[in-house]
Amino acid sequence: MRICGGKRSMFQVSVPPISLLATIICLTLPLLPPTLSLQSAVNVWPKPRLVSWPKPLARSLSTNFTINSPYHQNLQPAISRYLRLSRTEHHHPLITPSVNVSTSSPPLQTLSIDISDLAASLQHGVNETYSLSISEVGETAYLTAETAWGAMRGLETFSQLVWGNPSVVPVGLYIWDAPLFAHRGVMLDTSRNYYGVEDILRTIEAMSANKLNVFHWHVTDSHSFPLMVPSEPELAAKGAYGPDMIYSPSDVAKIVQFGLEHGVRVLPEIDSPGHTGSWAEAYPDIVACANMFWLPAGSDWGDRLASEPGTGHLNPLNPKTYQVLKNVIRDVSILFPETFYHGGADEIVPGCWKADPTIQSFIANGGTLSQLLETFVNSTLPYILSLNRTVVYWEDVLLDGIVKVDSSFLPKEHTILQTWNNGTNNTKRIVEAGYRAIVSSSEFYYLDCGHGDFLGNDSQYDQQAGGESLNGGSWCGPFKTWQTIYDYDITYGLSEDEAKLVLGGEVALWSEQADPTVLDARIWPRTSAMAETLWSGNRDESGKKRSAEATDRLNEWRYRMVSRGVKAEPIQPLWCVRNPGMCNAVESS
Fold this sequence. Notes:
This protein has 19 helices and 20 strands. GO terms for molecular function: beta-N-acetylhexosaminidase activity.
């Protein structure tokens, strides 16, 4: 959507009118189609919503360049960071921009930031709109934003506009920008394999550079419990892989503060009642089927105790379960200021609960597994709400074919469902039921898929043909290419009203076969593809998918991320970048 002035987007974000200065600039600059090829200096990722740059002109950036802004506790570190980046990055594009650099205009001395609402907190739906104007004359550029968080997005854009040594910046340029979706995230599983604090901070920094705003931290699971919960210290002491693989309260505080300084919310997930085998190390009496082999010999898939190795479900019939869990929930709400709390509630495996004697007795007396889950939800959800949190669950709690709760147990005004199966079909089921949705469809957004399975002595590989029973050897194969991610329309098939209930999306990196050694390459630059589609869409002004046009830009952006310290994997040989169009599937006319 190419607009000047305030307007409600077709999706989720309400955009207030921009400042008078920006309005004047917008009216006086010709609204020409944006020029965002590699021959241009305006190679910003994600692509801005509106760019006006009538003439390919640039001028030098002063060696004493400064950024002026009203004081904001979390914006000041960002200003220092972007000031240093603008002065010292000296990025050299893979293809030299075809831009006339003025030798007569004075260097750009200052970026002046104006913020309307300095009090706005970082929470879902906060306004991230900004406008940026760099004139051909004068020594000051202007960044206008409604909030400090929008100013951070504009600072990232400005940093990507600077290139060369000595540094230059495009002039006669106006950008208006705002996200299509308010929730744009990365989910990282730190239970199956542990990631150090620095790995998480590097991921958050790269997210901010891609204008992503939610780090969904799947911190615990059946495999390990690495989070030190002050009121329940035994959970980590006995459930973590080791004393050097625990996130302390000070670690969490560091990560949360780092997120604030980068405009990224840190959303904690304590998965339960399933995926809780690690809890049994401290509290074996509250966990059903813990430490059992996941697929009993001679049993069918329906009789499994877990969907992968690592068994254990909390027992909803044991009062001690809620004593421990409520302590965890309370402490997590203190450690994480985020207003969303993710309770998991996915993959309830009937065989696990049925292995417990007390649950066997419950079923023998006419109880059902769905009633058991309803008991659990009814005993925990009201407590989470009492802590002023909105609850996020995986879709299974409502959509599972065997164990699920009635919608009456999930108040729509306080519950968000995260979809991961069946693409847009399950998204539609969620929004048709009146719930808000976060989209993480495994067919498009699961980054771990296609790297093989991790089971030992698997007979499917015992064949001379070398074939595998599953694409890529994993349940969700094949590998999700950046094009697959880029071309996914998360509101496909939804009515306009239904689409309004889609908050956004998250890629997910489950860590059965990932750890810090492969973290960057698993996430980037594929996640950059989602970042652009959720920020400005995946279509051009005519409505045509623009993934072909995006290839060259993503090559350039990946190269710049690498130079900034993110080990993003390549998407093409460098030869393709140096020979534009020669690596296309179809020759351009």
